Amino acid sequence: MNTKPQGAPYRAAYDLGDGIQVTVFTDHAPLLQYLDEFHDRVGIAVLGGWTIVARLTDPTPGMTINPWGAGYQADAENRVLQRQVADPIFLRAGTQIAMREALVEDWENRRYTMLHAAAVRKDNLLILFMGNMRAGKTTLALNGATQHGFEIVSNDHTVVYRDGDHLVVTEIPTVIAVRIATYLEIEDFLPQPYDSNGVDIEAWRNRPKKEQIEADDEHVMYYSRASLNQPRRSSVRCGPGTDTQVVIVSPTFSSPAGAPQRVTDAEPLLRPHIRTKWAFDPNRNTQELPRTQRAPEVFLADGLELAATLASGAEAYTWQHNGDITPLLEALTAGRTV
User: Fold this and answer.
1) Alpha helical stretches, state H, 19-72
2) Is there a contact between 334 and 272 (Cβ–Cβ < 8 Å)?
3) 118, 156 in Cβ contact below 8 A?
4) Which of 34, 314, 328, 330 would bridge with 246, disulfide CB 3.0–4.6 Å?
5) Helix (H) or strand (E) holding 132
6) Domain with CATH 3.40.449.10 in the chain
C-alpha cells in the first residue's frame, strides 16, 4: 500500500525479524509509540509484507468481531488487514498481536514448535530453562541478563524452527511477565516495570515469602525488552555447522539451593514442554491474518522431532536453584569462556 488510507494519517514500518516486515497506518498516534516498544522501525517495508490499517473507531458493519470487541477484515490478495475498535488499549494490544501473526504465518510454513522455556545467550553459549510455572525460568533469565551480561532470547514462549541445516531459537514478541516474588527478589537489579499492572509493590513487600511465591497471575508486572535494555528481538542459530553450544536445564526453585546435576539425555527434559495448547488457543494464537495451520497431532509430531534435534549434542542438567545463575555458570566453565 503506497498511499495513506483516508483517515489514517500516521504510518510506520516495522522489522519483526526473520525477514518479516509490517507497515501500520493509524489515526491514533500513541499506537505507533506503543509498537516502538516491541519492534524496530525501518524506513520502507519490504514489498509483499502485510499492511495493517488500525483505526480508533467503532467497527464498520460487516467486519468480524474478535472476543475483545475489535472488528477486523483481511484482504489476503493484497495483504491488507483493516482493524477497528473504539478502546485505545484494545487497539494497541490487538494490533501488536496481529503484527506477530505475520511471524507465525512464516513459522507455520517452516513447521515450527513452541517450548515452555526461557532462553539466554552469551557469545556462543545458549542456555534454555525448561519448566512449568514457578520453576524459576524468568528469575534465572533475568539474573543472567542483569548480572552476567546475557541476552534474553525468550521467556515462556520459545520458538524453534528449521532454517536449512540449522535450527533457529527465538521468541514470539510479547511482554515479559515478572511475578511479584521474582521482582522483590531481584528488584535491586531491575529497572522500573514497563507496566506495573496495578500491583502494590510496597504492600506485597510486607507479606510472608510463601504468599509472595504463591501469588496468582494477577500479581505480575510487565517488562518490554526495551525497558530491560535488551534488543527488541533475538534469534540464535544452533545445530550442525554452527559453534553454538546448547545447554538445557530443568530447574526447580528451592531454598537452600543445590548444585546442578548433569544428566546424560537432554531430550526427556524437552518433550513435556512442547506448547501445543498455545498454538490451538484462538484467544492466544489469533488468526486475523488468514493462514493455514497444521493439525494438533502433526504439530506435536513436528515438535518432538525438533526437540530431539535440539537435544542432540546438548549438555543437560537438573537443578534446584535459588534464582542465582552463578552455580550453573561455574559448572559450565571447564573448557568454555562464559
Assistant:
1) 29-36
2) no
3) yes
4) 314
5) none
6) 10-109
List, edge to edge, every strand of the sheet that includes 80-85: 40-42, 10-17, 20-26, 50-56, 80-85, 71-75, 64-65
Residue 200 burial by Cβ neighbours in a 10 Å radius (0-12, 13-18, 19+):
exposed
Question: Concatenated DSSP letters for 84-128?
Answer: EES-HHHHHHHHHHHHHHHHHHHHHHTT-EEEEEEEEEETTEEEE
Q: Of 14, 38, 319, give the one whose Cα is nearest residue 173.
A: 38
* CATH number 3.50.50.60 is the correct assignment for the domain at 10-109: no
Torsion of Cα atoms, 38 then 107 then 284 then 280, to 10°: -170
Amino acid at 94: G
Sheet of 151-163, strands arranged across: 236-238, 166-171, 151-163, 113-122, 125-130, 245-253, 315-321, 261-263
CATH architecture of the domain 113-175+224-332 equals 3-Layer(aba) Sandwich (3.40)
Picking from 191, 193, 190, 158, the residue whose alpha carbon sits closest to that of residue 173 is: 158
In the block, cell 514470539 appears at: 172
pTM metric for this prediction: 0.92
Q: Quick count: other Cβ atoms within 10 Å of Cβ 158? A: 25
Per-residue tens of pLDDT for the chain, all 338 residues: 556 788 889 999 999 987 899 999 999 999 999 999 999 999 776 667 999 999 999 999 999 999 999 999 999 999 999 999 999 999 999 999 999 999 999 999 999 999 999 999 999 999 999 998 888 899 999 999 999 999 999 998 999 999 988 999 999 988 899 989 889 988 888 998 989 999 999 999 989 988 888 887 778 999 999 999 999 889 999 988 899 999 999 999 888 889 999 999 999 999 999 999 999 998 889 999 999 999 999 999 999 999 999 999 899 999 999 999 999 999 998 644 44
26 forms beta bridges with 10, 54
